[in-house]
Write a structure and sequence with these properties.
The structure holds two protein chains of two kinds. By secondary structure, chain A is α+β, with helices and mostly antiparallel strands. In chain A, helix 12 crosses helix 13 and helix 14 (440-450) crosses helix 15 (452-465). Mean pLDDT of chain A is 95; it is low at 1-16. By secondary structure, chain B is of the alpha+beta class. Chain B has helices spanning 14-24, 37-42, 78-82, 85-90, 92-98, 104-109, 112-117, 124-132, 224-231, 236-240, 257-275; strands spanning 7-10, 28-31, 50-53, 63-66, 69-73, 135-140, 143-148, 153-155, 158-159, 166-173, 181-186, 196-201, 210-214, 221-222. In chain B, strand 13 (210-214) and strand 14 (221-222) form a beta hairpin. The chains are: A alpha+beta, B alpha+beta. The interface between A and B is medium-sized, with 30 and 25 residues.
Chain lengths: 814, 277
Amino acid sequence: MTATDDVSAATAATATTTAPRAGAIGDRLLRKEDARLVTGEARFVDDLQVPGALWAGMVRSPFAHARITGIDGEAARAVPGVRDVLTGPDLRDAWQNPMPCAWPVTEDMRSPEHWPVALDKACFAGDIVAVVLAEDRYAAADGIDAVVVDYEPLTPVVDIADAAGDGTVIHEALGTNRSYTWTLSPDPDAVDRAFAEAAHVVSERYLQQRLIPAAMETRGVVAVPAAYGGEMTLYSATQIPHILKIMTTVTCGVPESKLRVVAPAVGGGFGSKLNVYAEELIAVALARRLGVPVRWTETRSEAAVATIHGRSMIQDMELAADADGHITAVRAKLTADMGAYLQLVTPGIPILGAFLYHGVYDVPAYHFECTGVFTNRTPTDAYRGAGRPEATYAIERAIDALAADVGVDGAEIRRRNYIAPDKFPYESIAGLTYDSGDYEPTLDRALELIDHAGVRAEQQRRRDAGEKVHLGLGIATYVEMCGLAPSRVLASLNYSAGGWEAATVRVLPTGSVQVVSGTTPHGQGHETSWSQIVAEKLGIDPDLVEVLHSDTAVSPLGMDTYGSRSLPVGGVAVGMASDAVLAKARLLAAHQLECAEDDLELVDGSLQVRGTPARTMTLQEIAFEAFSAHNLPDGMEPNLQCQVTYDPPNFTFPFGTHVAVVEVDEETGMVELVDYAAVDDCGNQVNPMIVEGQVHGGIVQGAAQALWEEAVYDDDGNLRNATLVDYGVPSAAELPSFKLDHTVTPSPTNPLGVKGIGEAGTIVSTPTVVNAIVDALSPFGVTDVVMPATPERVWATIEAARSSAPAPAGEGAS
Amino acid sequence: MIPVGFDYVRAGSADEAVSLLAEHGDDAKLLAGGHSLLPLMKLRLATPAVLVDIGRVGDLSHVRQDGGRVHIGALARHHDLGSSDLLREHVPLLAEVAGQVGDPQVRHRGTIGGAIAHGDPASDVPAALLALRATLVARGPGGEREIPVDDFFTGFLETALAPDEMLTEVRVPVVAPGTGWSFRKFNRRAQDWAIVAVAAVAAGNGSGAGVGLVNMGATPVRAAGVEGALDGGASAAEAAALADQGTEPPDDLNASPDFRRHLARVLTRRALDAAGV
């Protein structure tokens, strides 16, 4: 996303702190990664040259729900270059276990058996029913077209609201389309009481439409078996090489000790590559069976149906409030669309938002429940924000509805309900401990940046003049729980793995520093940020630091990158390992300089005896002494390196307020986002430029849900917009320059005081924009618009309000 | 995203291209900028057996004035037209329209000839040519012929070109200085096809106002009702209310037919207002 921000504003906020040392924490260091990315030097999976590899082509069901009655591969095998055609039954024995779901959210959760290639039934349009193996990708494409599959079409379940009725049961063995119901209700009586006694009750239904993640790089896989010995290397465009390694062992039976997983340069994921996919397990199984490399690269059309989707739920949201608009209870009930199968963390996505439906507000009573249902559509799973954007949308839309009911504006209703700064750490009714926060200053600053009074005056002027292009201003404040996660908390949520992160910092004998990280960047800039942390801690130039990652042979320990966890968990681990290295260096230097450890100070990457600059050792000298081990203190191990595995004591809770200004043309329904201010607080910032980049991209991705994007299905369960022509990912041309600023409220739970910023923009910008549209249309009596707010939908909403007829349901109402 | 196999031949001249078309008949497709044809081939919706590449035919990229008309070679690219001073001076509507086709990459590869010969009703250029009452030049085995733009678009992705004919030139009457014009393109993203667009020129060429509509039927459409009303002395608002008369707008994810009709009326009124009609 190339929209530019108001740099002067951002600079103004940081000017109060002391300038950071060049290249250390706080510096706007240019990203180390970018030169190789912009010059094409970076190697993505599809760039890998693998002689002798066979290309796999996936034959996908064109039906959303159909029994497979026959597969004829004869014509396909006759296509020049095609080696074989394999069906689900042909390949069934290649796997020891079905596709994994690592998050059984309840004890009684129902999960269908999900094999990489369907055995007898296709459950969504795009489900793999056969695999073509060919000598090149062109023959594979021709082979796919030549495979003849006989289907007996079945009635598809396309609508979320219909699924739970079990009119058609997708997975017969489960007996129902309901996967689970998960409830968080600390005191149901208190909630009922609050609603009974409320002066104001808001009751709204919101539709979170399905979104296609649309990472710039589609997925790709190369499985390379060793000529002998049984080793296997899996290259995949994945966010999670470490988790994928374990799951590949479990499903394919390759011993974990003989399996290496590499994520080379990865072009974005947004959660969609936080998964274990059929194509990965197919490639490994075939490479193992045939003893040759097997590869597959997803086409853009395939990506639209074969890679997980995001959001897709119905939210029934209720607020109870007293006469002044203080919220006394929140009740949220969700029906969440799992899609056809449970992928890696599908059922847990709504649960990641379950604790945040009261957002930044001090609420005494809370009820949340979510029912996950199967539909004949692409499985859903993590998409940037994962559960938290949905929660933030519901509370931030509902509180605007409450403001209208109470008769105050959006800023005032929020001020009345914010958790007060003296209440932190704040024990929330949902059971979380918000680490730190001070919400109102972010609202004040955002309103100042947007010229709140000026916008309101112009809005009124247009209304008074009867102009047809209306101005609207929308506000939303968010808090997110990120930094996944304390392992014990994950255990309490039935998540199968822990939430720690590992880091090794190693000063090499010639003075450069290797950092081995268990995080797996795919666009975030970890190599730059981790270098800055080491540079800060060791007093060295960040160019001396090399960051190794995303290869399980190099970095065997890791829990990977998602959920804004990399900095508050992985980055903190890097900082702690750096501290440990420095501590060891001090012991060694004190020994060789014959001084007390306390007499040493770190000056420009050297340890020198306080007041005696002549008695000094550079880090390189210390590292070489540690390497030669000729003169170490008694008991000290050779080499200057330390490994830390850090399990955070709590989540982190970034927050902020965004304000949007839109113009809505009442004659055409066109919405234009004309101004946008964002004031975020992610605690201490390692690289403010990277923070701003994350905020920019996040705002765009969230605004895209509000205005442009939706996976639209027809009644037969076919995705109607499977191309980037039809699926509306926006570009810089549709967006204003963003006005950014920030406050700094460090997290007290980790030594860097950092919180994470990868998802913040996406979490808050969607309700910010929709609130602005509804504000613009309030003179018509409009109280809601269905996302995305397309011109026809907005125009029809205005027309319906004018004639007081009910507004039309959205295409994505299902 | 991988096309069915095909043969590729490169034509060095328009005559060679025409003879290659005659040789291969319906199996052949001309390749110019490729920005309509290649995506269809990659989706396997188009499967020509032979591609005749005319991208290097050198003498068809011109923009020059010839008496009362501007002659534009079929291989002139949208970017060149959008930035042509000659076109800006004499046919500013067409320069404006060319400058709004697709995105910069499309405008640097796509050609005016391709945009016309593809016959896509969602394309911007044909509507402008209707408003401007342009003439198209086709070359076939028997030589060249002129086709009035009103006779050119015969159906969805169908034109009056014979299988062995190639569009070589577009001839557009010079618009008198000071004549009002407007192009109103309505889309959700800058790079998108128009949901509806309206190209309007106030008067001139001795034939009254011209109004062309994008994406309001199976072919690019002339808003004949609007033009007739204006000729009869109607106001811009009165005439614009007839913009959807006789149209059969498509139904797709971006708009229903009814919404397109509404948009056509609104955009036509705005275009006529801007053109000073």
